[in-house]
Amino acid sequence: MNLQAIVAVSGKPGLWKALVQNKTGFILESLDAQKTKMVANLSTAKMAALDEITVFGEDDDIKLTDIFERIKSSANVPDAKADGNTLRKFFREVAPDHDEERVYSSDIKKIITWYNLLKDMPLFNEEAKQPAVEDTVVEETAVAEVAAPSEAPAKAKPAKAAKAEVADTDKAPKAKKAPAKK
Known about the structure:
alpha+beta; SH3 type barrels; two-stranded antiparallel sheet; 6 helices; globular
């Protein structure tokens, strides 16, 4: 599942797709039917990318993407408006090692609501894009070649810098000599 560029914005219902970034924040588009757009200012809005969200676990935190995968394979998903006991029972099935004291029923409702928004989208069924191993090796080699230039250009640069320093001192006004003390 590819949830990159899908964010939740605090204070705004639903999920948003980050379209582009500008100087002050991001231009977001809602994932609902209205496709409303808004500018989220980074200094005032708190955004969380879905592929980075975790849920409190008893031992380790559980990634939201893992929970979505388990919900996808589940036979029946309850409605997000169901009572808290039904939601908690379902969440025990899909995330058995979650911390029940720190994961509230409102969190479970939000996760199920997000799942219902995303389940029919094509990006929910496609694989997350990860860089290929061959590409990273080529990039590292290119970076190493740029970092270690040949000896000839390195010797030429200091000579030019020295000439520039001499030229600057010739243009500087000459200091007046202080009168001799008697």
